[in-house]
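Worked Example 4.2. Consider the chain below.
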Amino acid sequence: MYDRRLRLFLGAAATGSFNAAARREHLTANALLKQIDHFEQHLGLKLFVRSNHGLTLTAAGRVLHEEGLRLLVQSEQAVARARQAGQLKSGTVRVGHSSLTPAQAVVRLWTEVAGDCPQVRLEIKNLDDRSHDNIVRVGVEHGVDLIAGLLPNKVLDGAVGIQLLRKLPLSIALSVTHPKALCANLGVADLFGERLLLVRRHDSVYIDALREHLQEHYPQIKIEDTRPYDQGIFEYCVQQGCLMVSCELWQDVHPSLITLPFDLGERFAVPYGLISELKPSEAVLSFLAALRRRGLCRDLELGEVKDAKE
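Applying the procedure from the previous section yields the following structure tokens:
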């Protein structure tokens, strides 16, 4: 980034001694002196007044010393920025993991594209299973670069980056001791007279569409709104003996629940995807680009969200 002889000159000026400067640079005094002599000859300037009392800067030396220090700092800052950029590109993608946002799917995707971006590696970061806000916990402050999960309204407003992996059919979760737990799948009629947990209105346009359909056509189903799902909601379902709208992603969240296919599941499928910062690191960009090239993810079109609302 700069002439090494400038650094030697600055060292000699700082110490006032060729011997001291040489020791700092792990050189012999003669080797450093030759470098300084060549530097002066190259510049056509006399930089030091040498005497038995040490070194004194000439007028030209004082100017070069002041400007050289500034150049040295700028050069070191430029190298640091370049190294940081290199580390990001060859860095780590930190994937958030919890029971409701399991990272296994991301790891499976990684195995398919690892050869396309070998400079990037995954690191799994465990999230709080009790929180329903994990899906938006991406960013430097959370130490997470990427999360895979269902996409609620709060991530569809453009505040985060989204890559759609696929649509997940809705399912019905119920206790393993529930009489209908032995069914191969559940139809709408199987829900008549049952309490059905649905995440509260306006959390997901896709769940809202299902709610409106059920309320309009099947008033026999007792819909009960809940807060956004967390571990507590799954436990509540078990304790109350009710049913809850779920999906295959959450089939292992609670050991006392079984997840069954639902006749309306495909019709009201919900988007499942990857969530990142709007301006992610180079490592994340490399990973996402590799997925897109393989056709493993894509942008979620605005029209798809509008269709769910209508």
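The chain has nine helices and twelve strands. Residues 305-310 have pLDDT under 50 and may be disordered. Compare this with Example 4.1 before moving on.
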